[in-house]
Structures are given as structure tokens and as C-alpha cells.
Design goal:
globular; 2 domains; 3-stranded antiparallel beta sheet; Immunoglobulin-like
Length: 148
Amino acid sequence: MAAGGSVELIAGEKIRFLPGTRVMPGGYLHAYIDPTGQFCSGLFAQMSDDHENEDPKDLLVDVAKHSERLFTIYPNPGRGLFTFDIASCLHGKDLTLEVLSSDGRLVARKLFRASELHQLNLAGHDKGMYILILRSAGNRTVERIILW
């Protein structure tokens, strides 16, 4: 966290800080556990399941608009193998992860039952920015990653 920046982390079971996580002087970090899961309600954006008509530029605006995330992906940027950590309020639910290239082409789709950690391998794909869309029961959250 840079000087002047702030972040609040809320989780249902645990908060994991990766090696190298730092708060610089003048930065603020507050992390706490909320076992009720109330923090997860309403974080998904309502949408249709048809991404064919979505403009990738609109998804990038969606990423910028929403600071809360239901998953964290690292390393980002990365060389191909990414790990994503799913919020505990989604554990046990059926999820779909879609990976779109920056021009909106569907690169990968993964269907799975959510648990804490999952891996995504984009090795062999073109370097650049990709958009990840995590869907559950007609809802979505969007994140972007850089493959280098």
C-alpha cells in the first residue's frame, strides 16, 4: 500500500497476505474477519449470461467501478500460471470462469465448484491483457490480468 492509500479487507474465514505485502508510511490497511458472510451480498453485478454482445471496454469500466472483489488473482502480471483465491461466501457454489482476450474473444472457460484456491494456466497464449469474468447464478464479478 502506497503512502496516502487505504484498503479495508473483510473475509469470512481468513485473510492471506502474500510475501512482500507492505504498507508504506502514510498508508492504511485494516483487515478483519466477518463470519456472517454479510460482506459478500450485492458485490456481483447483475447481467445476462450472454457475453457475445458485451463490449470488452464496458467490462474494463466495470472493473474500475467496483473496488470489492469476490476473488483475488496472483501473480498479476504473470507468465502463464495464475492462482485465484475465492471468497469464502462462494465456497461450494457452482461457478463459471471465462477468460476473454482484450478484443473480446473467448479464450477459456472453466466450470467448477468453488473452494479456496484454483489455478488457471494461460501459458502458450499471446502476451497482453485478459479479462476474467466469474459468474454464479446470473451474477458476475470482473477482473483483469496481464500475461507477459
